[in-house]
Specification:
The protein is of the alpha/beta class. It is built from eight helices and eight strands. Strand 4, helix 4 and strand 5 form a beta-alpha-beta unit.
């Protein structure tokens, strides 16, 4: 898909990965609706982007992605402003093993809700033009992560949900689904991870970071752009590895005759 002239909605867009994704979309000629729970940062990001890319191409909408009503309202306002929707990026996420239900609600449940809303508005069955949805997962959605079992569960969920729904979504609705799985990224989430106090956990984490490396948010945005533009990769999970190297996770072969019926 060419990005020029398209309309995108990005959750968690005020900072970090979401901000980098919004900027690469704007730089390539898209109009972008920025959703974030942090109003002050969201307004500041909108103002900064407006100076470079034109205020008319940007909409900021305060949104708690755990609220289905707020999400629905933001999708509706995006369509009211720009008259179309082509790209959805469900990016909002946290690392919180103590408040694990909230972690699941933000990292997985809101992604599911945002995906279904994106399909609803972009579906060719309901007058849309089709489109693409990229859900932000993590390398922790492909590999176990000792420090964050709930976080890892949420990201495994994103990968599994995205791949499974992609099997029917493109044919039915004209909407591609993909997952982006970066390693450690230089964001607040990584700062939160590094605050772990247990010496043994801190040592293991430092070894993992040294082994995998740390990405810039711009590396992740480049991976996102590749997924959006490559129309041959429906259902793909794209890993963003050290120094921004992009590598697709092999797709499993699904044989209907071997599927278990219930």
């Amino acid at each position: 898909m060419e990005v020029q002239g398209k309309v995108a909605l990005v959750t968690g867009a005020a900072q970090g990965i979401g901000k980098a994704i919004a900027e690469i979309l704007l730089r390539n000629g898209a109009k972008v609706s920025l959703l974030d729970i942090n109003v002050s940062r969201g307004e500041a990001t909108k103002a900064a982007f407006g100076q470079t890319y034109g205020a008319e191409n940007i909409l900021f909408l305060p949104c708690d992605v755990t609220s289905e009503n707020q999400l629905k309202d933001c999708f509706s306002k995006t369509l009211e402003k720009f008259q179309r929707l082509d790209i959805v990026c469900n990016n909002a996420g946290i690392f919180d093993e103590e408040n694990w239900e909230n972690c699941l609600n933000i990292n997985l449940v809101s992604v599911i809700k945002g995906t279904y809303l994106g399909i609803q508005h972009m579906s060719k069955q309901t007058g849309g033009k089709g489109g693409v949805i990229v859900n932000i997962a993590s390398i922790a959605g492909l590999l176990p992560f000792f420090l964050g079992p709930v976080y890892s569960a949420s990201k495994y969920g994103v990968v599994g949900f995205t791949a499974s729904l992609s099997l029917s979504c493109l044919e039915k609705h004209g909407v591609r689904l993909q997952a982006l799985c970066p390693i450690f990224v230089d964001t607040k989430l990584l700062t939160d991870l590094k605050s772990v106090k247990a010496p043994d956990q801190k040592e293991k984490l430092e070894m993992m970071i040294a082994n995998l490396g740390v990405l810039k948010t711009s590396h992740v945005a480049e991976g996102f752009l590749q997924l959006v533009m490559d129309q041959t990769r429906n259902g793909a999970s794209l890993k963003v590895l050290e120094n921004g190297k992009l590598e697709y996770e092999p797709l499993p072969v699904v044989f209907p005759e071997n599927m278990i019926s219930v």
